[in-house]
Specification:
Elements lengths: L1 E6 L2 E4 L4 E9 L7 E8 L6 E6 L6 E3 L7 E6 L4 E6 L8 E9 L13 E2 L3 E6 L1
Parallel strand pairs: 2-11
Antiparallel strand pairs: 1-3, 3-8, 4-5, 4-9, 5-6, 7-8, 9-10, 9-11
């Protein structure tokens, strides 16, 4: 079983930055065997892929809409994954979710591939 808890969201002005964190508690398995992803869901819209990092940390994937402004990273010693978002704009307003998928790093852009999800953290960007 894996529990994911996101933090770091909040209200920020356009052009600002945020660093979202996701703490992972895994029983019966190790964090380093999980690929980690970030998704977001804006009001009235479907959940969309933002970024993912493979369980080895050797591969990172980004949605085209955020490429260049977002960096995903992980710290296996702390069981944490991070999402740095720079140059925020109002279109980034959404609930951001952390997700975990064990071992296979295929199709990390697809929400249905993930086994565990956090509760989400709200990011609101004011213009």
């Amino acid at each position: 079983q894996v529990q994911l808890v996101e933090s770091g969201g909040g209200l920020v002005q356009a052009g600002g930055s945020l660093r979202l964190s996701c703490a992972c508690a895994a029983s019966g398995s190790t964090f380093s065997t999980y690929n980690m992803g970030w998704f977001r869901q804006a009001p009235g819209k479907e959940r969309e892929f933002v970024a993912a990092i493979s369980y080895t940390g050797g591969s990172r994937f980004y949605a085209d809409s955020v490429k260049g402004r977002i960096t995903i990273s992980r710290d296996d010693a702390k069981n944490m994954v991070y999402l740095q978002i720079d140059n925020l704009n109002p279109e980034d307003t959404a609930v951001y979710y952390c997700a975990a998928k064990r071992l296979s790093a295929r199709n990390l852009w697809r929400a249905s591939e993930y086994d565990y999800w956090g509760q989400g953290t709200q990011v609101t960007v004011s213009s």
